[in-house]
Design goal:
Layout (H helix, E strand, L loop, with lengths): L3 E7 L5 E2 L15 E7 L30 E2 L4 H7 L3 E2 L3 E6 L5 H11 L4 E5 L4 H11 L6 E4 L4 H11 L3 E5 L16 H18 L3 E5 L11 H6 L2 E7 L5 E9 L7 E7 L2 E4 L3 H6 L9 E8 L2 E13 L7 E4 L3 H15 L6 E7 L11 H13 L7 E4 L1 E2 L5 E2 L4 H10 L4 E5 L14 E5 L2 H9 L1
Parallel strand pairs: 6-10, 6-11, 7-8, 7-9, 9-10, 15-19, 17-18, 19-22, 22-23
Antiparallel strand pairs: 1-2, 1-3, 4-5, 11-12, 12-13, 13-14, 15-16, 16-18, 20-21
The structure holds thymidine-5'-diphosphate and magnesium ion.
Length: 453
């Protein structure tokens, strides 16, 4: 066919190659290349047609900024994650595991919005969406469900309807008939996103797009997708638990440190504004191996229960298992425990769990985990009124962590009586107005002495 061109794309990262290759030179994945027909001439490579007049260079000081107008989503967690609400004309990409609740979150957003919303779904039928909406609550007049997958048709319809918000579930179901490859393929995803972006910029209507993720956990489709959109949010959590976390991976209009916490319940997703209290209310008695960490998720302090179980190993090779925590980090903590504290942990199985099914990357929970390991090994319980916030270094030093004051305030607010922190953090702490006893530690040996006597 005249004017057609075939190219090979890496299905993992979207790398384009003129011929098939076994190993992607960009992401080093094997056997990921698939061919796609890309028709020449209709791929508009200049997406910034939104400029009404020709731009010219201007000094930074000359540019006046208006107040960025934002749309209140009526969802405090979502507003926070977006940096204060949806920006007009922006594109937000929401990714997450199948079944985690992306469609639920979006339908709730559509039903709560002030004004007309166009909810485009290529994944579910109208009846399915209606059934879900019934579970979520009162049906609203201004939420329009549209099961269309042709990108240009949905844009035509949006022009007629003039909604305040468009939701697309999901980008992988959209297609542009000008491109020969099937929906969900690299070139379709890229083209449809670019088309949506042009429409968003022209019409000033924000568009929220759901995207699938690959089995490795990255967003499916080409990397360029993440570059085109303004905000990338990730919805994560463990399906067997109720908590869901909405994280910002990219935000052109705000900080990426914010995060939203939801609980999945029978009536849909509920905003959790006080996560610490929820995670801690499980039990009150002192148990060995259970220690509380004053952690920080994004910008929010969060008290987390860490649980360790250390038992003599029955097999030759002791087992190490960690849920919600990096296994290599656990191995490091075990090595420090053995070398610096002289505790024989090498012949024990070690199981570690972060309660609530959340994944923690904050290094400040090191000290709590370390204490939980010793507590379980020696069968000595740690009081529920004590919490910990420090990182542990290879030499056994107890290191300072960021935003220590915020952590201490949260612990104080929740009625903890003692918090152990690093001595190097102590100078940043004003203890005058606090009821909590702030105790500094310098080395892991001090911990043994102070906490376990
Ligand atoms: P869904 O939004 O379909 O996930 P995704 O779009 O990310 O694939 O969510 C599906 C799960 O949510 C399903 O397993 C059931 C659960 N759920 C509830 O627990 N309560 C509810 O009110 C709803 C609507 C769903
Ligand atoms: Mg879905």
């Amino acid at each position: 066919m005249a004017g057609t061109k075939i190219a090979w794309f890496c299905t993992s990262c979207g790398f384009e190659s003129p011929k098939w290759v076994g190993k992607c030179p960009s992401c080093n994945e094997w056997n990921t290349f698939a061919d796609e027909v890309v028709k020449k001439g209709n791929s508009p490579s200049v997406p910034m047609q939104a400029f009404k007049e020709k731009p010219k260079p201007r000094a930074l000081t000359e540019i006046v900024t208006g107040h960025t107008q934002r749309i209140d989503t009526n969802d405090e967690e979502l507003n926070r994650v977006l940096g204060g609400g949806l920006v007009y004309g922006s594109i937000v990409l929401v990714g997450g595991q199948p079944g985690i609740g992306k469609s639920t979150l979006m339908l709730q957003l559509a039903m709560k919005a002030n004004g007309k919303v166009l909810y485009v779904s290529g994944e579910e039928s109208e009846e399915q969406i209606k059934m879900r909406a019934d579970r979520l609550g009162q049906a609203v007049d201004e939420c329009y469900i549209y099961t269309e997958t042709a990108c240009s048709t949905l844009i035509e319809e949006a022009k007629k309807l003039q909604p305040v918000l468009i939701i697309v579930d999901s980008i992988q179901t959209l297609y542009n008939p000008m491109i020969d490859s099937p929906p969900g393929s690299i070139s379709q995803v890229r083209e449809c996103t670019a088309e949506l972006q042009r429409f968003a910029k022209e019409s000033n209507i924000p568009i929220v797009v759901i995207g699938h993720i690959t089995k490795e956990g990255g967003l499916a489709g080409p990397k360029v997708l993440e570059h085109i959109v303004d905000v990338v949010l990730q919805f994560e959590g463990d399906q067997n638990y109720t908590y869901r976390i909405l994280r910002t991976l990219k935000n052109r209009f705000g900080s990426t440190d914010e995060l939203g916490i939801y609980a999945m319940e029978a009536g849909g997703l509920r905003e959790v504004s006080n996560p610490s209290e929820l995670l801690l209310s499980q039990h009150t008695e002192t148990l060995s191996g259970s220690v509380i960490a004053a952690s920080l998720e994004g910008m929010r302090p969060l008290m987390i229960e860490t649980q360790a179980l250390v038992t003599p190993s029955v097999y030759g090779t002791p087992q190490r298992s960690a849920t919600g925590f990096d296994l290599r980090r656990l191995a490091m903590l075990l090595a420090v425990l053995e070398k610096r504290c002289g505790l024989p942990i090498g012949h024990n199985d070690v199981f570690l769990n972060i309660a609530g099914g959340i994944r923690v990357t904050d290094p400040a929970i090191d000290l709590a985990i370390f204490t939980a390991l010793i507590s379980s090994l020696n069968n000595i319980g740690i009081g529920r009124n004590i919490c910990f916030a420090a990182e542990i270094g290879l030499t056994g030093e107890i290191r300072g962590v960021s935003r220590i004051e915020q952590r201490i305030q949260e612990a104080d607010r929740l009625g903890f009586e003692v918090i152990y922190i690093s001595r190097s953090n102590l100078k940043n702490v004003k203890t005058e107005n606090l009821h909590i006893d702030v105790r500094p530690l310098s080395r892991v040996e001090d911990l043994l002495y102070e906490v376990f006597g």
